[in-house]
Amino acid sequence: MSQLLSSTQIRDLTLRNRLVVSPMCQYSAVHGVANDWHFAHLSRFALGGFGTVMVEATGVAPDGRITYGCLGLWDDAQIAPLAQIARFLKSQGAAAAIQIGHAGRKASTPLWWRGAFNETEAEKPLVGFESWQPVGPSPIAHMDHPDFQTPRELTLAEVQALPSKFAEALSRADRAGFDIVEIHGAHGYLISQFLSPVSNHRTDAYGGSRLNRMRLLLEIIEASRAVWPAGKPLFLRISVQDGLHGGWNVEDSQALAVEATARGVDVIDCSSGGFAGATIRPAPGYQVPLAKALKQTGARTMAVGLITTAEQAEAVLTSGAADLVALGRTALDQPNFPVHAARALGDSADFWPKQSGFAVRLRDAALAKAALG
Ligand SMILES: Cc1cc2nc3c(=O)[nH]c(=O)nc-3n(C[C@H](O)[C@H](O)[C@H](O)COP(=O)(O)O)c2cc1C
Question: Mean per-residue pLDDT for 81-93?
Fold first, then answer.
């Protein structure tokens, strides 16, 4: 039996295999509310056999959305359609996960697949168009580009209010029935902006030393764990390195992993980058060494980034770099990746839904018979 397709337990939750669908923004919500697109998009991964399916970055506040088309969980009215998604994912044997975050200075940008603010006046009310000034640790823009505004610096009181905003969103995620929450601390969004000295120039208790820059995240973890049920896993995604000279690095992340684990984080999802000018060259498995570096701290890790084959994913686990493997674009391209991985690895695990698995097996039997002549 492969490691990739074997089950594993984290707290009270059993995952049917180690394959996770990485969170991927769809820029398709209206006023932060999920709809049929999100349901169909996410359901296919549960039907394809993934152990865990994670909903995209979901904002704790309206101004914490990356775009006006991103999901939110700042309002009870946003719970019901997400609950429907979580219910279906679980009915198909997948764990239902959701990523919770705040975009900080990288908020209020164009929908990625539109490429620009090109909405017509007639279209704006239909798509729920909104635009706002983002907030951040310091009044420094992500980059000199019309898509990114200079943020308003958060007041001390506003920073201190953020952990309870996260906790409220997590409590709604619990009410929606999710099994796993991932705190989004990566990719140059708000938490990541606080961590990196490049974007955090504060002189209060949330800026300056590494411990001060980690303070907001550690308070968010504590507030999250206080409301998130003890039996449910809590994941944390970070940019293990921001890729900038004098920025956040692997050693900083190792120190953070120790603190986060001590506060009840179960898995560190190891990504990187998200800052303008970062020198990170994507290549097959390029972030796997980052997961391995964090695993040395004793933390459970998840590897992600240009993992495209079953053999490669299995090697990530057998090399001891990570406990889970997340697929982003490969999952979009191959939503049935786990059922095909079972064949590629010669594993007897069968993740087909009963409604379709029997038909594929009959096809395979017919082909085998025909081949015998
Ligand atoms: C369309 C798209 C949307 C994404 N949205 C998110 C997101 O909501 N949260 C996040 O942490 N990463 C996001 N990512 C990054 C992916 O989760 C993943 O880390 C990245 O694509 C690398 O993995 P891959 O090479 O398997 O795609 C997104 C990536 C894509 C392609």
Answer: 98
